[in-house]
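[[Encoded backbone]]
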Amino acid sequence: MAHDEPLHKSLIRDTTAYFAYVLLVTTLGPFQFGFHLAELNAPQDVLTCKKDSLEQTALSTSLPHCIPMNTTQFSVVTSVFTLGGLIGALIAGPSCNQYGRLLTMRATTVSFVLGSAIETFARNIPMLAFGRLVAGLGCGAAIVVVPIYIAETAPPKEKGLFGAFTQISICMGILVTQLLGYFLSKGNLWRIILAVAGVIGLVQLVGLILVPESPKWLAEHKSPQHARHILQKIRGHKADVDAEVKAWNIDATEDDISEEEALLSAPPGSHPAPNPKAATASIGIWDAIIHPAYRPAIIAVVAVMFTQQLTGINSIVMYSVSLLSSLLPTTASLLIVAVSALNVVVTAVCAPLSDKIGRKTCILLSIAGMGTCSTLLALGLLFGVKLLAAVATLVFVASFAFGLGPVPFILANELVGPEAVGTTQSCGLAANWIATFLVSQFFPIVDKALGGQGKVYFVFAGFAALLGCFIAYWVPETKGKSGMEEVWGKREARERME
């Protein structure tokens, strides 16, 4: 491909219908993350009995119309989702390394269906919280394994673009649940919002039947020949996959006609028997942390993931309706729908930028924009300037969507070798979930302690300045580089381990 070939032409050439199907089905996992993250935002007042929910539009059911909760109890119900996410993220890394990306994704769908069902039929606070905990397990695992899977199946020259689909799907989940909340936050119709996630989980479970295992994982752990066959199917029968196969550093060209014939009739998600010639070594979490080859990458990914949350994006996703209702009582819910739509559009439009100007540049520009808008939002809320608060909220979310939203999910796959990708992604997403918990649990408390009026956004601006400086110093650029030895200027970790 020519260096200056237009993006749309390379996409048409490199993207097959089968890969588009695979991308659509797998990214329903991150969609669930966004959906569950924001599902209680719009219906908060109705769900917690702060507004009269005894309306004619209510569903005919014996379930209570609402579940009485104070601010602290609602914060616990909201943040317990992040506890499930943390556990899921820690489990998913070792699981997807040992058992494969596909099996791990299938397991997440079970969590989506069960968690959503428990939430939908919840009669009290513990039941609602437990449902969110179960759903969080699947969401935590999904945002670990899906970015890895996409990075291993996407066309090499558009990895940054397709890597952004994780964040685009998260944004779509947020938008859909905000739209549902805008229309269904009355009576006990809020239960429909929670039930929709379960239906989507069932759709993904069925859709995954036709999704193959990651070719790169198969080459490392099972059969290089099977991996090549799967990659050829994803790229199209006329595509030249030799360069990608060579990048695996595994012999996938041995003559074995009987095996090749068997693979041609194998179902998409089937696994061949382990190949003793294929690489099987993987690095555990503690081994990666203490090893000098991997530690810098783990610090980099953890720092970026912490920054993604501690700059305050989920204060908008989770609490924006109640936060802005005092200043914009009649338009707060509609503004948040607009914010969610903007998040999707900007993330999608800016997706190719990380492949053009670099991952690190996108992240730093994103942090600068969010820090500036945090200050402006705080001033707008503090002095009651409605237009400033509204515009700052929109630009704040757009700044997040530009870089800090999509880019962190593709870093782990580019900072370490394949033997440590799952582990590094788990560490990063565990940090992400911890930071999400801190924001979801303590944002209302800190906001109240500071006297309200948006002063808490000065805190987020401070985090943006501090963490932005660290990322500028520590995190390397990965655009256009292949392998951790080129990124960090050192040999592959597996060579150092020998």
